[in-house]
Amino acid sequence: MSAVSIYAEASPNPESMKFVLNSNLLVDGVSVDYPNLEAAANSPLAQELFGFDYVGRVFIAQNFVTVTKSQPELAWTQLIPELRQFLKSYVEAGGPIFLVDPAAEQKAAQAATAGDPTQQDGQIAQKVIDLLDNYVRPAVEQDGGNITFKSYHEGIVTVNLQGSCSGCPSATVTLKSGIENLLKRMVPEVQSVVAEGITV
């Protein structure tokens, strides 16, 4: 395994820090969000991170891990060196990131929740998914999080915010002023956007 370099990057959420690696953990477009240890059963890496008593949430994407701390009184300056060293050692040693490929897992979950929308709803949903993937997700990933499409029903788009976005003070503003405006402009049928996963 070649040397792994990792740098820490602040996110808009003061409680979340993004650790960017020079190697891939997941294929592009797939990410996983673990709000607690129980949810992280599929990721030995996330389970190990939850072993640090100040880690409250773990989000893993293509080439970064976002850690959200559960103890606001702790300064990132104390925590970054320890987390960076742990991630570097773990990845260089070839530690398992996942037990089951999350890409396959997510496809199965999406198929299960898609249900049987009307053909028109299905076309609108596809337009919304394309816009989120092409315009919104890259920007959200820059901030250490992710946005995924959940459903479209009668003008309402439901999305899921993950990673640093889930507890970010500015997430609601971004959702309403940025994402909702974009979708309404590009897909006239969309009336509003609501999010799951915001824990403020």
UniProtKB/TrEMBL annotation:
Domain Scaffold protein Nfu/NifU N-terminal: 6-94
Superkingdom: Bacteria
Family label: Belongs to the NifU family.
Record-given protein name: NifU family protein
Organism of this sequence: Hymenobacter jeongseonensis
Taxonomic path: Bacteria, Pseudomonadati, Bacteroidota, Cytophagia, Cytophagales
